[in-house]
Write a structure and sequence with these properties.
Number of domains: 1
Mean pLDDT: 96
Radius of gyration: 15 Å
Low-confidence stretches: none
Largest sheet: 5 strands, mixed
CATH superfamily: Oxidoreductase, molybdopterin-binding domain
Shape: globular
Strand order of the largest sheet: 2-1-11-5-6
Strand content: 35-45%
CATH class: Alpha Beta
CATH topology: Sulfite Oxidase, Chain A, domain 2
Bound molecules: the ligand Nc1nc2c(c(=O)[nH]1)N[C@H]1C(S)=C(S)[C@@H](COP(=O)(O)O)O[C@H]1N2, molybdenum atom
Number of strands: 11
């Protein structure tokens, strides 16, 4: 890993960007103490600090029609880690008009900065730790296409 990992924000955005962890610190930071269950390691407890994924995306200008409330419901985020681990978050999960979950892109874990490794997705409402994608390299925003009809 280099001295400063970068996160690529891409997809349906007016301002796609490549952000360092330091860039993420320009947004309002939240602190969360969380616990989650790992299938392999059992219960884990960590303290995270970083911006809300919602604020990161809003700053990148999502190409979503916000005039009504229905148009945004087909959008999702794909969050990728450096090792290929990947998880989907639906737009409605982070949108305050819907679930409004306080999902973060953490810039530090247990007080240790994540500049070299890249930020970590923090999903405090998840019981399981598998969506806590670490070493995030990319966040893609886009609509889910109409699922193919089952024949
Ligand atoms: N990039 C990446 N992130 C990942 C994983 C992974 O394999 N790759 N495993 C997940 C799983 S299964 C768990 S339980 C948590 C464990 O986080 P911790 O090791 O910081 O406690 O990380 C998650 N984040
Ligand atoms: Mo896990």
């Amino acid at each position: 890993m280099g001295a400063s990992a970068r996160v690529r924000l891409h997809g349906h955005l007016d301002h796609p960007a490549e952000l360092t962890v330091e860039d993420l610190r320009a947004l309002p930071a939240h602190r969360l103490e969380v616990s989650f269950d790992c299938l392999a390691e059992g219960e884990q407890r960590h303290g995270y600090e970083g911006p809300a994924l919602w604020d990161v995306l809003r700053a990148a200008g999502p190409r979503i029609d916000f005039t009504g409330r229905k148009q945004r419901l087909r959008f999702l985020l794909s969050v990728s880690g450096a090792d290929g681990h990947r998880a989907v978050v639906s737009w409605a999960e982070i949108d305050p008009d819907f679930a409004g979950c306080r999902i973060l892109l953490a810039t530090s874990m247990d007080g240790a900065p994540l500049d070299a490794d890249g930020p970590q997705l923090v999903v405090p409402d998840d019981r399981c730790g598998a969506r806590y994608v670490s070493g995030v390299t990319a966040v893609w925003l886009g609509p889910l296409a109409e699922p193919a009809e089952v024949r």
